[in-house]
């Protein structure tokens, strides 16, 4: 699997992401600067990592979403290429129109930096095939604006089409108000676009992939992506 | 030419920051505050001298970047 990680000024999780991708795939990851107008040839997966692109000025992800490289990402997604956005990357994908909805200020107004649990809603997608449906995984979050909101119509469509892939839950897998720490609509932690090839999620699976991190629950996502391309090849 | 673009949250969109400000105003004893919604103001200087052209440019700026029209409305004013 050949992956490309986008780099914007103010992004700070790109190396964590590249490390997790290399660990899973064995291949080096290309780092792609925001001013580029094309992705490296043969790219299988584009990752928009987390951080604070452009200092979160204007709105989180708003300025990065208009960077030159995003036109190439739009074309890549339109041709069916897989795109993963984590944290600020999720915000950038929403701002760029690749995903519906918006990430608002956390309902509690505080930046939340801790481990949370999320439930894998289905396992038959490239982004979840490394897990079982209903499996609960522990992943870190670190964000102030992760409260996913969309209009009723959009939420209905997301739910109806099974496009909510990850949902905040209790350690036992119960989706309730207490575990919805940022107030997201329907406890949404991660969604895909209509075609199912663009995933945005707030938690950081790339930070739970090695024993030394204290948890390896994030591995499944990357292992699943790698499997996807082994199958194709 | 001076202009102002005002961006506000659409009605019905939850505004936790506005709520917090509302709470702070109440605790400061400011009377009669029913509710607060927070927004943004952009003061922009334009090279254009034609009002219609200026308005078109400001509208483009708001649609492309200044506002996220999923959740926000905007108002464009040419001031002088």
TrEMBL record, chain A:
Pathway membership, UniProt: Purine metabolism; IMP biosynthesis via de novo pathway; 5-amino-1-(5-phospho-D-ribosyl)imidazole from N(2)-formyl-N(1)-(5-phospho-D-ribosyl)glycinamide: step 1/2
Active-site residues, as the UniProt record annotates them: 87, 204, 206
Alphabetical list of InterPro entries matching this protein: Class_I_gatase-like (IPR029062), PRibForGlyAmidine_synth_PurQ (IPR010075)
CDD domains referenced in this protein's UniProt entry, alphabetically: GATase1_FGAR_AT
E.C. number: 6.3.5.3, 3.5.1.2
SUPFAM superfamilies noted in UniProt: Class I glutamine amidotransferase-like
Record note on quaternary structure: Part of the FGAM synthase complex composed of 1 PurL, 1 PurQ and 2 PurS subunits.
Known role: Part of the phosphoribosylformylglycinamidine synthase complex involved in the purines biosynthetic pathway. Catalyzes the ATP-dependent conversion of formylglycinamide ribonucleotide (FGAR) and glutamine to yield formylglycinamidine ribonucleotide (FGAM) and glutamate. The FGAM synthase complex is composed of three subunits. PurQ produces an ammonia molecule by converting glutamine to glutamate. PurL transfers the ammonia molecule to FGAR to form FGAM in an ATP-dependent manner.
Protein name (database record): Phosphoribosylformylglycinamidine synthase subunit PurQ
Automatic annotation (TrEMBL), chain B:
Keywords per UniProt: ATP-binding, Cytoplasm, Ligase, Nucleotide-binding, Purine biosynthesis
Top-tier EC class: ligase
Domain of life: Bacteria
Pfam families, per the entry: PurS
InterPro entries registered for this protein in UniProt: PurS, PurS-like_sf
Biological pathway: Purine metabolism; IMP biosynthesis via de novo pathway; 5-amino-1-(5-phospho-D-ribosyl)imidazole from N(2)-formyl-N(1)-(5-phospho-D-ribosyl)glycinamide: step 1/2
UniProt-listed PANTHER family: PHOSPHORIBOSYLFORMYLGLYCINAMIDINE SYNTHASE SUBUNIT PURS
Role this protein plays: Part of the phosphoribosylformylglycinamidine synthase complex involved in the purines biosynthetic pathway. Catalyzes the ATP-dependent conversion of formylglycinamide ribonucleotide (FGAR) and glutamine to yield formylglycinamidine ribonucleotide (FGAM) and glutamate. The FGAM synthase complex is composed of three subunits. PurQ produces an ammonia molecule by converting glutamine to glutamate. PurL transfers the ammonia molecule to FGAR to form FGAM in an ATP-dependent manner.
Entry-linked HAMAP family: PurS
Protein name in the entry: Phosphoribosylformylglycinamidine synthase subunit PurS
Gene: purS
């Amino acid at each position: 699997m050949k992956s490309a990680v986008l780099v914007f000024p103010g992004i700070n999780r790109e190396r964590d992401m590249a490390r997790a991708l290399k660990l899973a795939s064995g291949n080096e990851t290309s780092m792609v600067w925001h001013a580029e107008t094309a992705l490296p040839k043969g790219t299988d997966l584009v990752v928009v990592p987390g951080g604070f692109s452009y200092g979160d000025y204007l709105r989180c992800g708003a300025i990065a979403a208009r960077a030159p490289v995003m036109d190439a990402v739009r074309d890549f997604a339109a041709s069916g290429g897989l795109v993963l956005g984590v944290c600020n990357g999720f915000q950038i994908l929403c701002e760029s129109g690749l995903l519906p909805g918006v990430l608002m200020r956390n309902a509690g107004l505080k930046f939340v930096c801790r481990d949370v649990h999320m439930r894998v809603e289905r396992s038959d997608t490239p982004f979840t095939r490394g897990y079982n449906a209903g499996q609960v995984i522990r992943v870190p979050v670190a964000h102030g604006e992760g409260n996913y909101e969309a209009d009723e119509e959009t939420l209905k469509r997301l739910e109806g089409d099974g496009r909510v892939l990850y949902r905040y839950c209790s350690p036992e897998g119960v989706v309730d108000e207490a575990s919805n720490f940022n107030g997201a609509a329907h406890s949404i932690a991660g969604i895909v676009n209509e075609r199912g090839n663009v995933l945005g999620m707030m938690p950081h699976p790339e930070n739970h992939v090695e024993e030394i991190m204290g948890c390896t629950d994030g591995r499944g996502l990357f292992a699943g992506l790698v499997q996807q391309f082994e199958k194709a090849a | 030419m001076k202009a102002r673009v005002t961006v506000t949250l659409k009605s019905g969109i939850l505004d936790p920051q506005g709520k917090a400000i509302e709470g702070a105003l109440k605790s400061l004893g400011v009377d009669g505050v029913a509710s607060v919604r927070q927004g943004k103001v952009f003061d922009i200087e334009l090279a254009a001298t034609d009002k219609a052209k200026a308005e078109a440019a400001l509208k483009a700026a708001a649609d492309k970047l200044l506002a996220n029209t999923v959740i926000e409305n905007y108002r464009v004013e040419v001031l002088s």
